[in-house]
Amino acid sequence: MANLRIGLIGLGMMGRHHARVIRELDGVDLVAIADPQGDPHGVGGSLAVLPTVTELIAAGIDAAVVAVPTGYHEAVALELADAGVHTLVEKPIASTGDAGERIAAAFEQRGLVGAVGHIERFNPALQDLRRRLAAGELGDIYQIATRRQGPFPARIADVGVVKDLGTHDIDLTAWLAQSPYRSVSAHTTTRSGRPHEDMVSAIGQLANGIITNHVVNWLSPLKERVTVVTGERGSFVADTLSADLTFFANGTINTEWESVAAFRGVTEGSMTRFALTKREPLRSEHEAFRDAILGISQNIVTMREGLATLRVAEAVVESAITGETRLLTD
Prior knowledge:
- Residues 4-118 form the Gfo/Idh/MocA-like oxidoreductase N-terminal domain.
- InterPro entries: Gfo/Idh/MocA-like_OxRdtase_N (IPR000683), Gfo/Idh/MocA_Oxidoreductases (IPR051450), GFO_IDH_MocA-like_dom (IPR055170), NAD(P)-bd_dom_sf (IPR036291).
- Residues 127-236 form the GFO/IDH/MocA-like oxidoreductase domain.
- Keywords: NAD.
- The protein is an alpha/beta fold and 330 residues long.
- The protein has 2 domains: 4-118 and 283-299, Rossmann fold; 121-279 and 310-327, Dihydrodipicolinate Reductase, domain 2, CATH 3.30.360.
- It has 9 helices and 15 strands.
- Strands 14-13-12-11-7-10-9-8-15 form a 9-stranded mixed β-sheet. A 6-stranded parallel β-sheet has the order 3-2-1-4-5-6, with helices on both faces.
- Helix 4 (97-109) runs antiparallel to helix 9 (303-322) and helix 6 packs across helix 9.
- The protein is globular.
């Protein structure tokens, strides 16, 4: 069987990594690249840098990766859908929920594989955590809390921290819990002089009753990417910067100290850090996209899932503006 012919549009910070991984992947060939701004990182090699999506499609591609700024996602994705090209769009799926709906519908109507690049799902620590939660290792899940903070990335200009970074945590939380969001309440601030929010604190509840807490910002010199899942038997802590997963168990040793024993809470137990195979998340994401096109598996983040994440992000921003809790419906 011939390799899938892949086109890439957008050769910026993420585009250069997509180009590298596509070239390393079995079963696919990078045959065309496009960016009206040129190739600042020199990823094209022998490929000509095409100026438009139309010319990218004319190169005869089976699938495409879209790594352009968020504001251009809709126009680019719809043109690819019209041409019958399977597409992986970087997150968020679009700049607005309505645009995301049009994108998702276009790929569904044409029977094409449409995926969104929520790469954190493919982090080894979160992949293993999802497997352990599905196996019931934590028992009932009570809360999923995330911290995602660090300095401002110069690559971002057209969206705020909620749609850029916060969508990672919204997506991974719903995926880990296998439940959509029911409600969110949030506060944001803008401290850096940019037009969009650069810090958010949001709480929420999923449809299955799990409560959530998300701290996200571009204002911290401390870079953190941490997910804490607390439940009946203890807490899992996933650090996606190091791809480490640690379990803090509830204690099982009885205490003879009467005043402490009278407290009916949990006690500190054993701590276990798991040994994981640490594969590059972007490579795993591309493998999932390839395999979905070939009909081997369906482990992608679908466009409907990407749209649901964007709707929650919009509700977070709306809650911060209005000061009211926002309820989400299907």
